[in-house]
Write a structure and sequence with these properties.
4 strands; 4-stranded mixed beta sheet; alpha/beta; Hemocyanin, N-terminal domain
Length: 226
């Protein structure tokens, strides 16, 4: 995983919120001879490359299957989905036959979080929740802001950035561009699964919390900000 940690990278963090989709960018360049481009998108499902930005215009209006819905962290509600809606969404039988209100589900997660001793383990746990259900993730942040914000952002996010290569889980939080992709940016952007992009936020990542230029490892900052 150390190959992730390169210098002089350009990171684009694409963030989505329902109903708004937005992009966050982290940009860093120093040594022209080694410049690589990395775009990282915070996103929902594992759509195939062919569904891209252009194809996303067509798929945005199609009805997803229950399995696709559960794989989409933007729309995933899991056991917090009311019983009467599960059949219509095609998720009945795909989630436990119990209903847990979102607030109670957030408290359940907080109990697990508090059992973890190392701050970095708490960070990884919260990110795993975000990868499954952003609705639940942000409910936790809203309900327990003072307790979890130091974990998802400073100071713990600094440790997360330094160890991003080790804790990277392969989840789709963006796109990565290298010099090998020169002249193919439009084609690669079309690999993104939706056309519903409304905002692009750009940030210079040469100084990650005073830690210096961490390359791709600096992606923890855009993810945290998003």
């Amino acid at each position: 995983m150390r190959t992730l940690k390169g210098k002089d990278d350009i990171l684009f963090q694409f963030c989505e919120r329902e109903p708004v989709r937005s992009f966050k960018m982290h940009y860093s360049t120093e040594k022209r001879s080694k410049i690589s481009h990395t775009i990282t998108m915070s996103s929902s499902n594992n759509a195939p490359a062919s569904s891209g930005i252009q194809a996303g215009t067509q798929s945005a209006h199609s009805s997803p299957s229950g399995l696709q819905l559960l794989k989409d962290p933007i729309r995933h509600n899991g056991v917090s989905t009311p019983f009467e809606k599960r059949r219509g969404l095609g998720i009945r039988g795909l989630v436990p036959s119990a209903y847990i209100p979102l607030e109670l589900d957030a408290e359940r997660c907080m109990q697990q979080l508090r059992l973890k001793e190392r701050p970095i383990d708490k960070y990884i746990y919260l990110q795993s929740i975000q990868d499954v259900s952003e609705r639940l993730y942000f409910a936790i942040l809203v309900m327990h802001t003072a307790e979890v914000m130091p974990i998802v952002y400073t100071p713990v996010v600094g440790e997360a950035c330094e160890n991003f290569s080790e804790i990277y889980r392969g989840t789709i939080r963006g796109m990565y561009f290298s010099l090998n992709d020169s002249g193919m940016i439009r084609e690669l952007l079309d690999n993104w699964h939706t056309a519903r992009v409304t905002t692009i936020v750009f940030t210079d990542g040469e100084r990650i919390l005073g830690l210096g230029d961490l390359g791709v490892n600096g992606m923890g900052i855009p993810i945290g900000v998003s």
